[in-house]
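Hi,

Apologies if this is the wrong queue. I'm a grad student, and the batch job for Phosphohexomutase from Flavobacterium rhamnosiphilum produced an output file that my downstream script rejects. I'm not sure whether the problem is my script or the file. Here is the sequence I used:
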Amino acid sequence: MSIKFYPLQFEPILKERIWGGEKLKTILNKPIASKITGESWELSTVEGDVSVVANGELKGKSLTAIINESPNEILGTEVYKRFGKQFPLLFKYLDAREDLSIQVHPNDELAKKRHNSFGKTEMWYIMQADVDARIIVGFKENSNASEYLENLKNKTLLTLLEDVKVKSGDVFFLETGTVHAIGAGLVVAEIQQTSDITYRIYDFDRVDTKGNTRELHVDLALEAINYNKVDTYKQYDRALNQSNPVVDCPYFTTNFLPLQGKITINKTGKTFTVYMCIDGIFEIEYDGTRFRYKKGDTILIPADMDTFILEGNASILEVFIS
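Support response: The file is valid. Your script probably expects a header line. Output copied below for reference.
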C-alpha cells in the first residue's frame, strides 16, 4: 500500500445503555442522539463494531482493512509478530448516569475455550466524578464460591464487595476475574483487551422500558471469579512533558503525559501508540502537517510514524504494547 501514514482518528461507535446519560455530549462533545448513551467505542475491531477512519486519505476505510493491507506499518513489527493482524486493544469512553451491573470478565484461557476470544483485562481513568461517586472493585476480604453464592441468593452481595469513592484523575487496573461495577455519576476512559465478553452477576433487579430484566450469567461467572481481595488502585507521577508510568501489564502499557509546551516523540516501529486526550487541547506536527485535538479525542499513531512533535496544554493517556 503506497500511502504515507498519519495520525488516525475514527468515527465514534455510540452505544445506548440502560445506565447511560448525556455526558458524552456535554463533556466530551460526542454526537450522541439519545439521553441514554453509555459508551463511545473509539477504537475497535470487535466483530460487528469495527472502527472506520474519520480523517485524511484513508477516510471511510475500516481499521481491519488498513491493518490487513499494512500490518507492520499500522500495528508495528513486534505487535504483528505477537498478534498477527488482530488489533489487540479496545478503547472506550463511558458515561454512567446510573450504576452499571456487577460483573466479571474471564481470563484468556477461559475466554478462548468458551468464546474463542481474548480475555478482558482493563483499566479505568476517572475523567469526571460527581460528589460521592464510587466504584465496586473486588472483595473486601478473601472469600469463596459458597459464601459468594449465598450472598448473591440473599441479595446481600454488596456487603462482600469493596466500595471505593473516586475522584477525577484516579486510575484502577482490573485484572480478569475481578468482580466490579462502575458507579453512577462517572465519566471513564477505559482501555482493555479486544473482547466484549462480560458475565453479568447482579443488576439491582432493574428493568428496561419494556419491563424486562437483563440476562444474568451467574453460572458462567463462577469459574471466572477471583475470590481473593485485590489491589486495583494505581498511583502515578505527574511530571510535566514526560511519560509517567501508570499501568504496565502483558496486554498494554499506559503512561500519563501532562503536556505543557512542545516535546518531540521518537518511535521505533515496534508498536502502534494511542493517545486519549483526557483534558485540554494539543497538536501533533508530522511531516510538515499539524493535526489538532481536544478533550475526548482518541488518536491512533501508526507504528510507521517514527518522529513527530506534540504541542499544547493537555493531559494525555499514552498507550502502547511493550
